[in-house]
Amino acid sequence: MTQRGTYRADHVGxxxxxxxLLAAREAFSRGRIGWEQLREAEDRAILTALDLQREVGxxxxxxxxxxxxxxxxxxxxxIEGLIPDPNPPAPxxxxxxxxxxxxxxxxxxxxxxxxxxxxxxxKLRQVRRFTGHESAFLRQHAPGPWKITMPGVYQRAxxxxxxxxxxxxxxxxxxxxxxxxxxxxxxxxxxxxxGVSYIQLDSLTYVIQLADPRRRQLLIESGQDPxxxxxxxxxxxxxxxxxxxxxxxxxxxxxCRGNNRSAWASEGGYEVCAEKAxxxxxxxxxxxxxxxxxxxxxxxxxxxxxxxxxxxxxxSSKDPTLESKDQLLRxxxxxxxxxxxxxxxxxxxxxxxxxxxxxxxxxxxxxxxxELVVEVAREVWG
Length: 382
Description:
It is a single chain. The chain is α/β, with parallel strands linked by helices. It has a single domain (about 20-380), classed as TIM Barrel, CATH 3.20.20.210. It contains 13 helices and 8 strands. The strands form 2 sheets. It has a 6-stranded parallel sheet with strand order 3-4-5-6-7-8. Strands 1-2 form a two-stranded antiparallel sheet. Strand 5 (about 250-255), helix 11 (about 270-280) and strand 6 form a beta-alpha-beta unit. Helix 6 runs antiparallel to helix 7. The longest helix has 22 residues, at about 35-55.
């Protein structure tokens, strides 16, 4: 039995949507069904997802992010003050953007969920809970400890703040960030009051922006100091989680290099951010992408404090090919040279569906991947 907070067989959160839910979402978008019918379809699909997680033996349960169009949907769907950018930026330069076999599908998915081209044009106002509709259902139906995933606000703020527009209501990006952080802090407290077992902050700037050499250079060319960005990022995530009672809830932070329709967005190891991020972030566990060479080696894990856990994302949620258990065991052994084995766990490198269309795998592929997570976890940690 997994001890509370260790969660050896973990997963990042999102799961492939069943065809019935995709059809219901399509019908809702075309006005053929109403909100109540969509919610009923979501409820049924979540119960199926919970059954899957229970059957394969995962240590913690999520709703698969089935109520979201995209992983950070709770943030931009629950606040007012965003407007379409009247002067959208130019397309990214060569070498920046979605890569891999699903690259074109990834760009289409972002457009479909309306996740791009928005900036803050008015004072931000929260109009509903970010995840209250998710937590209420999980609290009632999860067959064990349950997790809520939440987007880190720094990455969104970086794209939403546009000089000439946003500075008319927020003179500095820091002031806008403060408002977003305060909203998220209230959400965290509400989740704790509702009995959440595990809160996971998805904060991707650490590696998607700072670790990728090309993206890091673009940051410098825009007049920003990557070291200052790292300091601000850590401070923002810590402020979001300030005051969380660790005897009641486990806090994780997930870093990855983009995950959308089996495409990826960046590459580069953790070394550039590891020492500050691993030692200064006030979280209990880091969920780290480690399924390909794009993530670099395990050496940066030497900075992880002895009181924190590392969840090794060794199993790909992008590629349907099932990993070799022997190879996974060897990689865990290699990682244990830098982090004690008792401080390690295993998971897929990211969710299976960061956008609602999902990665290019089948439901059976996903099940086999999750079963492998559990099989390896039980063999290594019992």
